[in-house]
Fold this protein.
Amino acid sequence: QVHLVESGGGSVQPGGSLRLSCAASGDTYRGYCMGWVRQAPGKEREGVASIDTAGRTSYKDSVKGRFTISRDSAKNTLYLRMNSLKAEDSAMYYCAAGRCGMGYSAWGQGTQVTVSS
């Protein structure tokens, strides 16, 4: 079973940057696809970025060119670098993991990102 703990959220002005981290435990982590999912108040949960075991990445259109997902297998950590943040990026961000092609089965507790002037 994979256990996920996020960190790095906070408040930032529009145009600012943040880096989210997700520490993973469990031997099966290395065989899992991972991603970041966010949910704003009153809105549905949406996938932001994902990365597979080979390092291939995919992004939601609205964050392409601004967000970068990466994983450090030696540290069992997933990252999301967020640049040029916009107010519409404000949400609770969740780290997720699961066997590739089978959906996410493990979730972190979430970290809040607020973009406001």
Remarks:
- The first strand starts at residue 3 and ends at 7.
